[in-house]
Prior knowledge:
The complex is a heterodimer of chains A (810) and B (211).
Chain A: E1 4-14, E2 17-24, E3 29-34, H1 40-52, H2 56-61, E4 76-85, E5 88-97, E6 100-105, H3 109-119, E7 120-121, H4 123-134, H5 143-150, H6 154-164, H7 170-176, H8 180-220, H9 233-240, H10 244-276, H11 284-312, H12 322-377, H13 382-392, H14 416-461, H15 465-487, H16 489-508, H17 510-514, H18 517-532, H19 544-651, E8 657-662, E9 674-679, E10 685-686, H20 689-692, H21 695-712, E11 719-723, H22 731-747, E12 751-756, H23 759-768, E13 777-784, E14 792-799, E15 806-808
Parallel strand pairs in A: 3-12, 3-13, 7-11, 11-12
Antiparallel strand pairs in A: 1-2, 1-4, 4-5, 5-6, 8-9, 9-10, 13-14
Chain B: H1 5-16, E1 20-22, E2 26-28, E3 31-33, E4 37-40, E5 48-54, H2 65-81, E6 87-93, H3 98-104, E7 109-113, H4 127-136, H5 158-166, H6 173-183, H7 187-203
Parallel strand pairs in B: 5-6, 6-7
Antiparallel strand pairs in B: 1-4, 2-3, 4-5
Helix pairs in contact in B: 2-3, 6-7
Amino acid sequence: MSDLILKSLDINNFRSIRGHIHAPLDAKVVLVHGENGAGKTSLLSALELALTGEIQSLERADPGYEKQLLHRSAAQGSVLLRTLAGTSEQSFQASLNAAGAQSIAALDVQRAIFFRERAFLPQSLLGQLLRIYQDAGNDAASPLAQFVAKLLGLDRLDALEAGLKPLVDVRNVRKNVDGWLAMENEKSRFERLLYDQQKIREGLNEQIRSEISELATLCAAFELPVPVREETLDEIAGILSDNYDFEAFARLTDQQRKLASLLREIYGAQSAINSEAAVTPGGGDEAREAFGRWDAEYGQRVSALRNRVEALLINISLPSDPEQFAEAALIRLSTERKQLTDRTSQARADITRHAVGQDELDVLIRQRSTIDEEVAGLSNSAGSLSTALAELTTFITGETCPVCDRNFGEVSHTTLSEHVHGKVKTLSASAERLLNLGRTRSEVQVTIERLSREIEAIAARKIDEKSLAELDRRLASAELLTNELKTISEALREGGRLRAADVAARRAMGEFQARHVSLTAARDTLNDFALSIGASALEEGESFEAAAARMNELLLAQAARLEGRLLMRRRGSDYIATVRSSIKRRKEADERISADVDSMKRVERALGRAQALREHGVAVRNAVDNVRSTIIREEFNDRLNRVWRDLFVRLAPSEPFVPAFRIPESSTQKLQPKLVTEHRDGGETGGAPGAMLSAGNLNTAALTLFIALHLSVPRELPWLILDDPVQSMDDVHIAQFAALLRTLSKEHGRQVMIAVHDRQLFEYLKLELSPAFPEDSLLTLELSRGARRDSVCLSKRFSFKEETSLFLAA
Amino acid sequence: MSGSPLVEAVQQRLRSAGYSDLSTPFKVAGVEFAFTGAMRGRNGRALDLVLLVDTTTGGFGDRDGVRVRQRVEALSRALDVTGSRYVVTVILVGAVLAEDMEALTETCRVLHVEGIALDDRGQPASEISGRQLDDRIRVLLPLMLPVPLGETRDGSEPAMEQLIHALPAGTDMALVDAVITASSNGEQAVTDAVAFMISGSFESEPGEGNS
């Protein structure tokens, strides 16, 4: 893009300019001359008005300056500036009436500021310039700070510094970074969750351990080949469920039956002998008769009872003696009844507990889902939103919403601040509620776990209702039998007595019988049997009864032992089922924990990454501080001061002291440059310019400062417009100043426009700024006005002319 | 011409700044003028006529203020007569009376060079004396502006470049790029950008898609 060049200016009735003037401006240098009051300043002000829509120097003097802009004699006026960028023309315009000026087309804000601050030096500003910069202070709005901020990148560094500031405090991070707070909450939620789950898992583990140890105690009796551990459960279950004991028990029952039948045979043989032997000792017949009578009366009933008892109590052998039978049967029945009662009541309790437990579980699960629904309903961000809203309240002054700018009165009768306070209260209540809900939920969850475990344990050991009915039925028959036995107990006792008498009578015949062959054979058989069941052989003289009782006792003892073993096998299997269900639950818990640990780790990693980024951001911010202070120091020492010194020395070559900005070495972030003077050839810093320089050189210092500032910043507009800057410079300075203007115009591409009131100076500048090469150009504008006529602007264009006056002396 | 070393140093300095020597004597409007040295600029300084006067050892009446003034005034008038636009700058090399200089400034621009330490090759003895010499004739020398901050090598802004250099090693460059890009839109944009980067880091694990 080529530079914007001033082309021409049309002014109608503006300030001291009456009527219309047209001023061409399209030259590298424009010299404006006029006597005081001829309208030089008006011309330059018109330029400023057209470009920026206002006139800063007038505003400084009189905030109501706008009313003075129109020439007194006119009703309306205008200013119109044309510019050229390459070949495209652009207009800047403002219209004037008695009330003020309306800008029609002006520069964008940035370039307007550049124009005001860096391109146009109104006469009134020159005298104040040094003071303005000397009193700069260090707040951000001071002219010096603005100059520095203008330097490329510094506003961006400022933006970085301020923009990264929230990273320093984690509270601001939470406020600014979406999801930070949520992530932190997520992390603590997982921590809580994991803690709960670990507790549940430990509970399960403890349970499994205690169950295993009970199982081990139980299994000690079996002397298992494998140790009882979780891993060997299957093996143990196999061992426990093998049929060895069961088969042994069946074998034993067989043996008992066999013994009973053997005994019956023996008794049969004995009684046969007894009946046919009249010679047998007396009394035997009576006794047998009495017993026979009793037997006729009760025998069938007793045998029916015996059959029923034997049917009910499988694997049992009852003594044949009625009385003993009754006693034994009663004892066995009462044991059986007790067992059955226990089992049924246990089963009932289980069924009831199972149902109740399921109900409880159901209630808890519903509670949990209610909590979940509520949690889902509550916004996670309630807390941060409430914080944000709470901060917002300070911005609420009336009924106008600071967000949508609508009047809240349209919506509700309550005031807006009440509404927002209410909302904040609700939201922070929500946040608290969320915490409560989380706590309650984990409690509920623990109870649910416990209940599910209990229910599964019950389900594992619970028996179905059909089996329960069967148990009941058995119990009923046991009770019935007991009652029947009790009702005939008298008769049975009698039978017993009779039978005993009978037996006594028979014993009397013992020796006689002993001699009997069949009895001998029977005795052999019994002896063999005794050996086969592991009992000792019959001793000489030992009666059949005694031997039978001995063997029976042995078998009963074995039966009792086997029953015990079977019971233990059952209980062992129960334990194994429980342990397995616990292990399954533990496995599930493990899976949940590992899933949650994964999530937790992901959250932690995410937070770690975010934290790292945050630290990087802080590092960037620190670097920004360093870079900025470096740049500021460089800017002042290496650039601004150097240019200023160069310019100042040009204009005041004999002044040994040059003005400079000095930045204290220690200051970093705060910009606190001071205006000082330095000796040109080095050495100690002198005092403030006001104390060291003459009035003329002070003026020079201000003028060169302005030009140095202009040259130090990027060239947004290539114009230097100076309004009568040489009021009090002496002649030396004017010659140097002219040379400087020429340098700026011809070597640095600035379009220079300068107004002077002094005729001699005007002529001198006209000579000094004459076009020096073919593209060079110079325009002079001479303004004049009379009391009764319109202002006149006389322009004259000078173009390059080959210089021919100099000849070498041949 | 074997003038004084100081005159020679001034001429050398001006030559290096683009001035070329004019042989003297020269004629203007038919009148011949002789000076210890005469130089002419080029391009924007093509109208600069620089005359050197050696007030210590020079000929042509250089040592007499009045005669110098008369000569310069005569030249000035001759230039006027021919309608020339040459701007005359007289450099007085060596000690000079203040009133002589004062009188001369009414006619032309006057610069005064004196007391510059030179080494045995006629060059300024040190950087300081070089700068002292420059300061005396600075108005004739080109104005050297430091490289504007905005126009550096690769087009990126120098402050940002410096910032990147100043960062501790291992700083996350994606973050740096994001905030630097955002910095041209003000502090809120920076805060937003860094917040966006951080919350973005919640979303994805490195080496994994979206989770």
